[in-house]
């Protein structure tokens, strides 16, 4: 039982403070008899909170930056009308800053034996699972002098998926893929290409593609055309160790790596290739393999949603061993990790031949655009020192990348906005060169 602000004001006009009305509650007891009677009646006529029946329905997932609507159905089984304020509590990251009070609080009136619905609109600011907290209801009497309050546990979860902002690049990459498939252009011969058809020779064609037997059977010179092989295997490896926690702009590096992985997965599945995912630091954090082309993207998005960087040093040997177990056949292994000198030179490089001798390896890393901006600053002593530090950092990354290239690794080093299309272009270049 709680004394409302209205009752406190009335009581203050003609009452004296006393002790405890009942365990856990303090308040004012009016000396005026009619006021005390009115308060008692108001409390008695307030609908009980504990007997209310609450259920949930609505969205169970949404993309980061979008909204999700979760509906509460409140049934009033009592014989008294319910006049109440309701608070639907969720974690703070379920709303943008400053909007929680407006979004989570509702006023409602429910006649006896009826039910009403209220909708809470979430707009999460972080990936992962958002679990509903308690629903607190304050039931008022008809005079608004006293209220009953109670809480109900009504479980519900909304999974916040990665935003996949790089999907805007997918149409242009698919157009390039169609060219590689030979639908709008002619391909050259490569290790990973297979015979497609014959056509008439035109000036500029590679003479090595001339089919002399077919030429002998007709009056024109015939050349072979080739198209990339399909049904290749691609393993996306997300390094979720401490280096993935470094923030570039407003998000950790891991988020940019996920976005690039999603674009590559969408493109590769359209190309007829099989895509798998491994997330690892000191143990396997997520694993997706064996999914069909139509199911792989939803599966990747779902397992990526709760992934968070772990503040531990990645076990490079364990990562390589897990990648080899996940990709027993020859595959393109895309390792999304750091190009920092120490983790690569001390952890990855000594055991990299175990991957390169069996697979084609591509390393993709998120570069900090702030470093490039620092390298161009001038005008003061402090700016010159910043430019020197940035130039040294860029030189170390380039040296690390060159070491990887000497092992036959393709390296993509780009800012968060450029990483996804750059990685897709590298995949298409490998496919065009017949290296898959």
Description:
By secondary structure, the chain is an alpha+beta fold. It folds into four domains: 2-45; 49-161, Sandwich (Immunoglobulin-like), CATH 2.60.40.10; 196-227, no CATH class; 230-433, von Willebrand factor, type A domain (Rossmann fold, 3-Layer(aba) Sandwich). It is 33% helix and 31% strand. The strands form seven sheets. A six-stranded mixed sheet has the order 20-19-16-21-22-23, with helices on both faces. A five-stranded antiparallel sheet has the order 1-12-11-7-8. The chain is elongated. 32% of the residues are buried. Residues 13-31 and 183-192 have low confidence and may be disordered. Pfam families: DUF58. This is DUF58 domain-containing protein. Residues 198-370 form the DUF58 domain. It comes from Streptomyces broussonetiae.
């Amino acid at each position: 039982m709680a004394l409302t602000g209205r009752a406190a004001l009335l009581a203050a006009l003609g009452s004296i403070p006393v002790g405890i009305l009942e365990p856990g509650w303090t308040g004012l007891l009016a000396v005026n008899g009619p006021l005390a009677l009115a308060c008692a009646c108001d409390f008695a006529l307030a609908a009980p909170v504990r007997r209310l029946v609450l259920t949930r329905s609505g969205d169970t997932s949404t993309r980061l930056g979008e909204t999700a609507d979760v509906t509460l159905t409140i049934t009033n089984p009592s014989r008294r009308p319910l006049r109440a304020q309701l608070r639907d509590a969720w974690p703070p990251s379920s709303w943008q800053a400053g909007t929680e009070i407006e979004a989570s609080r509702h006023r409602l009136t429910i006649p006896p034996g009826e039910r009403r619905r209220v909708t809470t609109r979430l707009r999460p600011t972080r990936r992962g699972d958002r679990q509903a907290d308690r629903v607190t209801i304050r039931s008022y009497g008809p005079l608004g002098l006293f209220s009953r309050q109670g809480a109900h546990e009504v479980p519900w979860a909304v999974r916040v998926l990665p935003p996949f902002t790089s999907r805007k690049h997918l149409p242009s990459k698919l157009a390039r893929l169609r060219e590689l498939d030979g639908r709008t252009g002619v391909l050259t011969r490569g290790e990973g290409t297979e015979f497609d058809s014959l056509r008439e020779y035109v000036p500029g064609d590679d003479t090595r593609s001339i089919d002399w037997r077919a030429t002998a059977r007709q009056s024109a010179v015939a050349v072979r055309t080739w198209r990339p092989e399909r049904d290749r295997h691609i393993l996306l490896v997300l390094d979720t160790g401490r280096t993935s926690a470094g923030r570039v702009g407003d998000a950790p590096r891991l988020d940019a790596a996920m976005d690039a992985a999603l674009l590559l997965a969408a493109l590769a599945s359209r190309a007829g290739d099989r895509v798998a995912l491994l997330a690892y630091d000191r143990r396997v954090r997520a694993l997706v393999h064996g999914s069909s082309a139509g199911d792989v993207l939803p599966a990747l998005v779902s397992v990526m949603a709760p992934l968070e960087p772990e503040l531990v040093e990645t076990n490079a040997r364990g990562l390589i061993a897990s990648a080899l177990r996940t990709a027993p056949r020859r595959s393109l292994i895309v390792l999304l990790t750091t190009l920092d000198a120490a983790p690569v030179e001390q952890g990855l490089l000594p055991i990299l031949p175990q991957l390169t001798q069996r697979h084609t390896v591509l390393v993709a890393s998120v570069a900090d655009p702030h470093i490039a901006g620092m390298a161009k600053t001038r005008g003061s002593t402090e700016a010159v020192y910043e430019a020197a530090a940035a130039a040294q950092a860029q030189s170390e990354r380039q040296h690390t990348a060159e070491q990887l290239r000497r092992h036959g690794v393709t390296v993509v080093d780009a800012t968060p906005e450029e990483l996804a299309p750059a990685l897709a272009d590298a995949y298409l270049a490998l496919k065009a060169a017949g290296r898959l």
